[in-house]
Each structure stands twice: as C-alpha cells, then as structure tokens.
Amino acid sequence: MPAFERRVLLGGWLVALPALIGIAVLLLIGIPDRVLCWSLAIAVMVATALIARWQHRRVVYPLYTLAGLLEALREGDYSMRGVRGGVLGDAIYDVNALADRLQQERLQFEDSSRLLGKTLAALDSAVLVFDHDVRLRLLNPAAQRLLAGDRSTLIGRQASELALDALLAAPDARVIKHTFPGRSGRFDIRHAPLRNEGRSGQLLVINDVGRVLREEERQAWQRLLRVLGHEVNNSLASIHSLAGTLATLIEREPLADDWREDSRSGLQVIGNRAESLARFLAGYSRLAALPPPQKREFDLAALVQTVARLEQRTDVQVDAGAPLHVQADPDQLEQALINLLRNAVEASSMTGGRVVTRWRAEGERVLIEILDDGPGLPGSDNLFVPFFTTKPGGSGIGLALVRQIAEAHEGGVSLSARSDAPGVMAQLWLPL
Predict the structure, then answer these.
(1) What strand order describes the sheet that includes 412-417?
(2) Which CATH code is given to the segment(s) 296-431?
C-alpha cells in the first residue's frame, strides 16, 4: 500500500480514536453522573475535532501542491518542481518527470521554430500558409516583398483580398505571367493541402523564374562575349600587326628587292586569318539560328545506315537493332549523327581502330550509340561548350550543335569512356 494511502487510513483511525476511548471508559466504569458524562463527551468532541483538523491538513496540503504543479503545467510553466520526499512522492515524481519532458519538448520546438523561421527568411521563394477559411496565417519576408505589405496588415486577410485565390484554384506546378503589388513577371506556382489542428489549410509557394532566367541569360551573354571577344581580338591583333609591317615595308625608299614576296606573304596571312574569322562567325550563326525541329515519323535504321555510308575515311560497322520508327526531324538528327560519327572516326584514325554504331529501345526512349577505339575522352568538362575544342583548327561547334538538336527533341547526348575497351562511347537519346 502506498505511503499516502497508509497515512490517510491511519488518520481515519486516529479521528475515531477519542470516541473509541470514550466508549471504552464508559464500559469500564459504568454510567457516570451527568457532569462527568458531559465532560467526557466534550473532551471526546474536542479531541476528535483537533485530530480531524490535523488529518485534513495532512491530506489536503499535498493535494494543493499537486494541483499547483498541474496548474503550472497547464499554463505552460515547466519550471516548477515538487518535493519528491513528501507523502505524494510517487505522484510528484511523475509530475516532475512530465514537466522535464514538456520543457525539453518546448525547447526543441522553439529551436525548430527558429530554424524554420531563419530558413523561410533565407528563401527567395514566397511561402504563404492559409487556414481552412482561406485566411493568411503565415508568410515569409519574400512573400511580404512580393505582396508589398507589412506582416501585420497581411496576416488574417483572405486570399481573395490579396488576389491570390486564382493561384490557389489553378493547377499545381504551373508557370504563369502575373503582376503582384511588388513585382511582375513569370512565376512558378505550387500549392499543397495542409492539416492543422484537424482542419484543412493550403500551402502556396511562388518562385520568380523570370529573375532566374534573366540571370542565366546575363551569364550566357557574358560567356558569349568572352568567346567572341577572344577570337575576334586574336584575329584583329594579327591583322593589325601584319598591316603595320606591310605599311612600313612599302614606305621604304628604295624598296627592298623581295618586297613583293613579303607583301604577298603578308596579305595571304591576313586573308587566311580573315577567312578563319568568317568561318568562326558563320559557325556561330549556324548554331544560333537552328530552326525548331520539323518532326515526322521515319525509319531510324535507314537513317543510321545512310549516315554510316556517308563516311568515306573508314568503314563504319553498323550493329543493326530492332526496327524502330521515331518521331523527329530527320535532317537535324542526320546532322547530329554526322558530327558524332566524324569525331569518332577522327579519334579511331589515331590508333587504327574501328567505329561501331548501334541503336536500341530503352524504356520510353530510343538510344543511339557510336563507339570508337581512339585514345579516350579528353580531360575537360567543356566538351559541349560552344567554341571550345581540343582539336587543332577545330571550330567548337559540332558537339554544341549536337546537344542543341538533341535537347530540341526533348532528348540528350553524352560522352563517356568505354568500359569494355579503350575509346569513347557517344550516346544520343530521343523520346519514343
């Protein structure tokens, strides 16, 4: 029996003890006179009242302490603790343990809330949370900037008042043009249902994709200008230097005996350099002006075999796969395969190896592979960057054009080292 129950039971017997003693006295001495009888009755009543008061304090005060601890927990004050050695030691111990756990959970919740707040504040995406009445309950600083309002004026307003109801009703994962109070442009709209306290809500995330695209466009222009500037400056520097040399040569009096030959040689170098620059710019124009693919159905096997026959420097082995008909632009795909096959033949010519081309269906796509026995993959990550080349006299257009054609068909291209032999495997895939 727990200590508190024993003390309550003992106190109950103590309260009844004066009456029991009075009855025992009467049984022992018989019925006394009236005065003694009243005196005994009064003594029994006083003793019973004193013991009852003592018992009341022993029972009620520990319960007051326990009630105070529970009230503190209910109000969220987890710092109060009870003395574990009292009559309610087990209950106080459990309440103290509960307070410790609740305090720890509160600290973890506050840490998580601070971390969530800092994360939301650092996001460039606007995050908004609406309750079951479609009223705004939470938003991050990016959302405040997008809506051009203070947090106090935005919280509690309905989505219709903020002109966001159409975004919540629209299909998920859409890119739309929209004008917000703080910004206009193209935005990626995503929303999802939420549950809070048993009620439904909605999460709305708005990403400004226009700004990302503008930044990518700016970086692309910077890369293009660096490449064009480097190539044009190299050509112009050579032409300017040679022109100055030729001007000095023909101004000499008297003219040197070999001035014609020197002039002819210098002009030839200037012409070659200008022609090289013209080819470079023509290659860029071809890359930049690639038209959209005109897709139609055709036999892939016939196209691959035609491309293989176009290569006259070596015999290209064609490992015929299953007959496949694809929806693509045959002219653009032929140009892409010619570029890949040309690179493979040039690589294999260094080692006297062979070139193999093959195709197969793989899931929802068709995969075209060209394998060579060349020296292997160049040590660079810029192989598909326009105007980057590892070959003397190369334009750096071929692989960039191949990738552009593949991506225009919602496919891709990759170069990787062969696992079964030295050389490179080029893979071009298109959706079936």
Answers:
(1) 316-319, 355-362, 365-372, 424-431, 412-417
(2) 3.30.565.10
